[in-house]
Amino acid sequence: MNIQKFRIGKPFNTEAVILDFPIESAVPEYIRVDNEEGKIYISLPLDSQDIIYGLGEQMGGINKRGRKYRSFCSDDPYHTEEKEALYGAHNFFIISGKTTVGYFIDFPGQIHWDMGFMEEDKISITIDGTNADIYVISGNGENEIVKDFRTIIGTSYMPPMWAFGYQQSRWSYPDKNEINRIIEGYEKAGIPLDTVYLDIDYMDNFKDFTINQKAFPDFEKYVAELKEKGIRLIPIIDAGIKWEKGFDVYEEGAKNNYFCKDRKGNDFKAAVWPGICCFPDYLKADARRWFGDKFLTLTKKGIQGFWIDMNEPALFYSKEKYQEAVDYVKEYSGEDLNCWEFFSSRDKFTQLSNNNEDYKNMMHLDGTVCHYDVHNLYGYMMTKGVCESLPKDTLLFSRASYIGSHRYGGIWTGDNASWWSHILLNLRMLPSLNMCGYLYIGADCGGFNNNASRELLLRWMQLSVFTPLFRNHSALGTRSQEAFAFGNSEDFKKVIEVRYRLIPYLYSLVKKCAENNEMMFKPLGFEFKDKLSLECDDQLLIGDEIMIAPIYQQNKTGRTVYLPEEMTFVKLSGSDVTHKETLKKGIHYIDVAIDEVPFFVRKDKKVPLCNPAKNVDNLDITIAEYI
Ligand code: MIG
């Protein structure tokens, strides 16, 4: 491995890198520390041909060049094109060109990335702090650089095999009756199903580790009944704990100093779903252990998987800031406001959520570390704590993340929308997330916000069939999005069955990628260096065997595909192989019916398929045929 480590100041130990490295004696001249401003500036030249890969969970293309980004874990439910920060902070990128070099900035606070935006031929990075470790990885090409990086950040989390089954979620299925209705819907339609999700309404007033008794009279028995059918319930757990006298989880946390403090030394408080909450200090080992062990109350009831949410952390408002806003508008009560007065009054309220002043008032490690400076570690350390308490082989994935959390769980990519452009966004994020160690990944299939059409959901599934996490999830108030909810469910059955046929292949591939620090999804440019491969932004390689080119546009029955080498074009539908044809290197137009899953098998490769089943517990992973 050819890795240099540069240290500036006294960085906070993020535990992202698990190997020890000698620190270089001098920092290169492209790194400039400005102690007065409290910032580090990094400036790197870009050749006209250079491609930038990486940055994990971000908007934009596979090539990250020509845009600005920000590392600051953000609860942003509208992933529109201009957004610069989503839920993860993944500070690793590769400049690929005449020379190819990887960079990892290990810094837990905010970073601004200008990747050739203001100036086309320059990367300008601004780190909001003066303490950071910077790793420069000079391997032989992108694959080797990723492998070296993945080696130093440690082995990726691997979920149980049933987590590769098809999963159904919604905000919310609030009680047993509704869950039974969903399962029956799938059974009647003969569509496979492995899990059903419990969103926040299964709890008692959104209080973590409680269960609404009316909605689930005998939870443990119900969990067992479903397990009998091969179906697992996956509850959500949120980051904050309701501030409520007498609520045992709150009382224990308060008594033992497990919560983050404010600047005055009281427990820091802000509102999320349960109302005013306290926030476990996941940066403290004892608080982490305590919170993680709470999950055992649910695993003891038979629960085998969790998704953890709101851990950026998302804050709706703090009482202090809310009061400020009220006082501010009171001044104008009864007045004729000019437009600026109106906008500023309005903004006082719209800016209450996830406000930096609140993050700056939140303190970790007994008041010694300001949350704002280590913001990106919160979801990561929560994931770590939970994983370390859970029995092996528990499914776990988080919304917020920082490099390092890939060792403890997977991630989903948060609140996307039922927009066609988000199928493509989903595809483009996959390789960047793999680069940063995340293997168990997926987007809300069909889109979270807004209403999905039948066509959109089916086309989206034709991509999600290949993502390790294949979960249909949608928001409160949106139309029903289950595979049986659109009339004629035969098409859905056929597409989802293909997923089950691929499970032995997908599971083995993810396991192999975890063991060897490799990527499951690769940009074409990682393997082929011709111009069309390097610029390809809507196709991916999977392992060494497959290339995918899903349809992501409305009213299309086909698309153009570029083949960088000879491949076999395959379409599967249910148990059938509906098409198999060898295609030459070059550009082709392919037709894909709404009930087919298209992919390409690479030259001299074979993909194993088993027979479909109603869920993974009933899956016979014996190979039925090779395609
Ligand atoms: O503020 O629990 O991303 O998947 O359904 C919204 C309700 C809170 C955000 C998650 C989403 C989940 C929703 N949560």
Helices, strands, pairings?
Elements: E1 3-8, E2 31-34, E3 39-45, E4 51-54, E5 67-71, E6 88-89, E7 92-96, E8 101-106, E9 111-115, E10 122-127, E11 132-137, H1 142-153, E12 166-168, H2 176-189, E13 195-198, H3 219-228, E14 232-238, E15 241-242, H4 248-255, E16 261-262, E17 269-272, E18 275-278, H5 285-294, H6 296-299, E19 305-309, H7 319-330, H8 339-350, H9 356-361, E20 362-364, E21 369-370, H10 378-389, E22 395-398, E23 401-402, E24 410-412, H11 421-435, E25 441-442, E26 444-445, H12 454-464, E27 470-472, H13 490-516, E28 521-522, H14 531-535, E29 540-542, E30 546-548, E31 558-563, E32 567-573, E33 576-583, E34 586-591, E35 597-602, E36 608-609, E37 625-626
Parallel strand pairs: 6-23, 12-13, 12-27, 13-14, 14-19, 19-22, 22-24, 24-25, 26-27
Antiparallel strand pairs: 1-11, 2-3, 3-10, 4-7, 5-9, 7-8, 8-11, 9-10, 15-18, 16-20, 17-18, 20-21, 28-29, 29-30, 30-35, 31-34, 32-33, 32-35, 36-37
Helix pairs in contact: 5-10, 7-8
The structure holds ligand MIG.
Ligand MIG binds at residues 171, 199-200, 236, 309, 399, 414-415, 473.
Say how many strands there are.
Answer: 37
Q: For this entry, what is the oligomeric state of its chains?
A: single chain
> Which class of secondary structure composition applies to the elements?
alpha+beta
Global geometry = globular
Question: Which small-molecule ligands are present, each listed once?
Answer: ligand MIG
How many DSSP H or I helices? 14
Q: Rg, please? A: 24 Å
The neighbouring-strand order within the major sheet is: 25-24-22-19-14-13-12-27-26
Question: What is the rounded distance between the termini?
Answer: 37 Å
Into which percent range does the helicity of residues fall? 25-40%
Q: Major sheet, described briefly? A: 9 strands, parallel
Binned strand content:
15-25%
Low-pLDDT runs: none
Mean pLDDT: 98
